[in-house]
Amino acid sequence: MPVISVLVALFVGAIFVLISGHNPIRAYAALILGAFGSPYDISETLVIAVPLTLAGLSVAVAFRTGLFNIGAQGQLLVGALGAGWTGSQFPDLPGILLLPMTLISGVLAGAAYGAIAGWLKAARGVNEVITTIMQNYIVVFVMHWLLQDGPMSAPNASGTPASSPIGAGAILPIIIPNELVPLSRLHAGIVLAVLAVVLFWFLLWRTSLGYELRAVGLGALAAAQAGIDPKRRMVLVMAIAGGFAGLAGMIQVSGLFHRVFDGFSSGFGFDAIAVALLGKNSPIGITLAAILFAAFARGGTLMQANAGISSHLVEVIEALVLFVIAAETIVRAIAGRRGPAQALA
Amino acid sequence: MKRFLVLAFIFSILFTTSCDALTGLTGSSLKIGLVTDVGGLNDKSFNALANTGRLDAAKDFGVQTSVIESKKQEDYVPNLTTFAQQNYDLVIGVGFLMTNSVWKVAKQFPNIKFAIIDGAPADDAGKTENLTNVANLFFKEQEAGYLVGVIAATMAKDKVGKATHNTVCSMGGIPIPPVDHYIAGYQDAIKTISPTTTILNGYSNDFVDQAKGKEIGLNHISKNCDILFQVAGGSGLGYIAAAKEKGVYAIGVDADQIDAAPGTIITSALKRVNKAVYNTVKAVKDKAYKAGDNFFSVANDGIGYGKTDAIVPANAKAAADQALADIKSGKITPKDTVQVKG
Amino acid sequence: MNIEVLIGAGVLAATLRLATPIALAALGGVVTERSGVTNIALEGCMLMGAFFAIFAADKTGSLPVAIVVGIIAGVALAALHALASITFRADQIVSGMALNILALGLTSYLDYELYGTTGTPASLPGVPTVDLGFLSAIPVLGGALGHQSSILWVTFLLVIVLELFLFRTVPGLRLRAVGEHPRAAETVGIDVRRTRYWAVLASGALAALGGVYLSMAVAGSFTDGMTNGKGFIGLAAMIFGRWKPVGALVASLIFGYGDALSVSLQGVSIGDLRIPVQLLSTIPYVLTILAVAGFVGRSRAPAADGLPYESEGH
Fold first, then answer.
1. Which of A300, B186, C57, C140 has the least C-beta neighbours within 10 A?
2. Do B88 and B123 belong to one domain?
3. Is B11 domain-assigned?
4. To the nearest whole angstrom, how far is the Cα of B50 from the nearest Cα of chain C?
5. What DSSP string describes B290-310?
């Protein structure tokens, strides 16, 4: 039973907490309350879960085809740059024009970045693991250049490396009224995320393309028997994956920061890999896994503030829980989820 | 069934202690909260220094204090908000990346006092807007760079010890103002005191990668640099390691780093962030909190140069002390833009 | 711009230094994936090696003890991964990632608790360098090889040993069989699980040595997260090198060369044009993609890589 093993992990974590001289019960209470204790906390947990879900979809859609998309982080950042550029280049356009333009820029930018990896694999046989890992780093440095003193950097009071702010029309509004949850940062991106989850489901299980992709994912042999050529779809799949991640980047810019800050949103793409796998590459699973990760991040804050737990101990506890959940999954027959072996072939 | 009962029991314990956890720090003394930037408490740079100041203040003034380490920039607002919601008496944000976040949260909680290290609140358009509940703690890093530059220039000019090639250099993490100010002051001092000295500069593009820092150091040393000034946090330690390996000299930054590599580090450019935090906590305690710009420079001992190694000759120290006096009196104003970009 | 910047002894020496940790992680990857287990936790094993070597050096003042302790720490983390992946047949990617987070949290926590205010101690034993002065007669290469850490030479040796082991010995053949056709291997009497355990533990040791190199030989200290992704670059190098030790070394050298260029090209201008410092840092990554696209092409992992194995009669 997964719950028992999670409790075991929490118990081991409690020992660490005790050794460090703090109260485990206070610590865990803070963890739960930080994530769900008040409407504000829940709203903050969702704020993190939204981009994480999208990044998880990015990784999952590739996994379903047997491709290993480690590049969700890079695609997210490229999407953010695209969205940020469009949003700040036309600041006076009304929302009805600027918001869709910004959205499309973010999605297309991420999709293009992903497509590069897909093309390299299809045309030159370059393993997408290599390409996407490298791409993650490349975009980070390009972003440094663009935003520190390059073409996209904005003159700034405190010298923060960032782009110019996006126009008001490109902002995703906060959807929770202040009277209901004061200070909520939860923006309309959550609507986009929900739509993306539905789109993911629809694409994979209700279109012939999706059928093809899942067939390829289940084994090249099966696909060949069904008359499908895996290579043809690689570029498209990586583009779709990049598009989901690019959307995540766009949402961070339009919903939270309203400009592109150098070095923001670090770690989403990475956590997304675990989110996709824990969620068994399925829409509901990914959403729940994203919420779990977000809960840890948010709860971890209160653990530090109220229970005095070091942020690193919080990481240790999170890792223990993850590890134990991973070890718990004895059921191997996950629909569509192939081992990296075929993925790397 | 039994498992369910055990679970229910455990959860009920957790929730009955919920009130306790939710209120966090209790008691009548002041509550001081520190929110680090993504560098974390162990960044060998200003987060660590701010933390030292916080802990010293806690010890000396009996205030209660907590710290939250931010993992990504999205966390700045909720981390600051967490402290504000709990009515902390002072919430300190570390770093120029937090200027917009502090602006947002400070506006939402006008009765809570804030402080930003290295910045002033910036609105959504990036424009500075001083608020009545935010103290902007600015440091004149270029003055610190100038002071150590004086020492370096004197030693290079007089060919002291291993510094025989009349070449000095520096390495920044990334070319952002808090880093570049140090380098600018350093280069200004060298050009003023020893115009014939060759100046090199580089960036590791990273504050963590020591291997990279070391390679840049080795590269500079192969170009005859004898005195290496690091302005790159953890990556800078690699820069110092290169100096140590090749038997030349290095200069530390932010905190006094002379014990990190005795015999190699000749002095450090001090940015007394810990003092700034300590003084701000004291100000809140003494009801002398001053919002708006608070400058820390040699004038108020917020900037200085660290312990010097035995190899540093008396005339170099004297020159540095003279420069310190001159900066205080306004006779010298170190430049804050980098001339040799590298 | 002078040509030294591109192929001088200095750049080549830097290439070797920068390639070493990546090569060690890549070798670890080769060993474990050849046996059929994906070990993403190599980054974590490196970090464990880096921290615990410093810790042991601090407490005992002895370099050999420090290296051994560092390696044991990496093996310990790998053991957890082996337990999850082999015995519990867990998802190897998630297990690996969880262990990376665990290693980062644990080492950062201990670093702060033990060395937070003071930093790691300054006078730790260093790793000896191998001085081959007689080589200085050889242009360029002599300078590149003449003064390198002993761990670099150990790495070269390991590459040769592993290449021979995997492709010229019976135990190596068995290991590869376990990675390609575990069921067939089992029917001829090879203990699949035990072989895989050994492989995963060995990968932890190799990666940990890479971490020891970073903290003891390069930096002489520990900073949180100092491996900075080198474990993952090592995995890329493993794939690039087609899961062969020599290939992994070549791939690591290519990456290391790009990294060295990003340093040596700082401040260099071609006419009036100077590449911004931030873009220089992209060189190793772009170079790797180009190299793989241009020369390597398709590569295949061991057939049973990443798939948990259920033996008959379980």
1. C140
2. yes
3. no
4. 12
5. --EEEEESGGGTSEEE-PPPT
Amino acid at B116: I
Average pLDDT over residues C214-223: 93
- C121: tokens are 């101690």
Residues A122-165: pLDDT tens digits? 888 889 999 999 999 999 999 999 998 788 888 764 567 888 88
Burial class (CB within 10 angstroms; exposed 0-12, middle 13-18, buried 19+) of C148:
buried
Q: Lowest-pLDDT range, B8-17, B176-185, B223-232?
A: B8-17
Q: Which residues sit opposite A224 in a β-bridge? A: none
Burial A200-237 (b: 16+ CB within 10 A, else e): beebbeeeeebebbbbbbbebeebeeeebebeebbbbb
Q: Among the three residues B107, B139, B171, which one is the final residue of a domain in this structure?
A: B139
For residue B39, the domain's CATH number is 3.40.50.2300
**Three-state DSSP class for residue A48:** helix
A180: number of Cβ within 10 Å: 9
Rounded to a whole number of angstroms, the distance between the first and last alpha carbons of chain A is: 35
Q: Residue B183's domain spans which residues?
A: 141-270+303-329
Nearest chain A residue to C106 by CA distance is A316
What is the Cα–Cα distance from B335 to B337, expressed in whole angstroms? 6
Q: Do the chains contact at C119 and B260, CB–CB below 8 Å?
A: yes
The answer to whether the Cα torsion of C88, C92, C95, C99 is positive or negative is: positive
Q: What percent of chain C has pLDDT over 90?
A: 70
C221 contacts chain B (CB < 8 A): yes
CB C285 within 8 A of CB A138: yes
Q: Model confidence over A202-245: pLDDT tens digits?
A: 999 999 888 888 887 776 666 666 666 667 788 999 999 999 99
Rg of chain C on CA atoms, in Å: 20
Domains identified in chain B, total number: 2
Distance from CA of C265 to the nearest CA of B (A): 10
**Pairwise CA distance, residues C75 & A33, whole Å:** 37
Neighbours of chain B (3+ CB pairs under 8 A): A, C
Task: Please tell me which residue, B118 or A329, carries the higher pLDDT value.
Answer: B118
Q: Which residue has the tokens 């005859």?
A: B224
Query: Is residue B205 in some structural domain?
Result: yes
